[in-house]
Amino acid sequence: MPLRFNSCPHCNQRIVFSIDENDINSTSYPAPVYILHKSESCGKVSTFYVDSLLRVSYKELEKKAGAIKTIETRD
Ligand SMILES: [Zn+2]
Q1: How many Å lie between the centroid of ligand 1 and the Cα of residue 22?
Q2: CB 49 within 8 Å of CB 56
Q3: What's this model's pTM, rounded to 2 decimal places?
């Protein structure tokens, strides 16, 4: 499970999450996945798009269509 270090588009805090092939629909890339920022001060969901190596390509504030899973950030 590769670990990804990024920032939450809602609050800009640093976030860490793990992702694997089963978290995305791999029929087309970049593939969306929902990221839940598990934090008392945030708690919001955004959409991250990853490439075939599960690297983050870009992200959107809103919950966009097409993702199959929601991943919670780690502490
Ligand atoms: Zn956040």
Answers
A1: 24
A2: yes
A3: 0.95
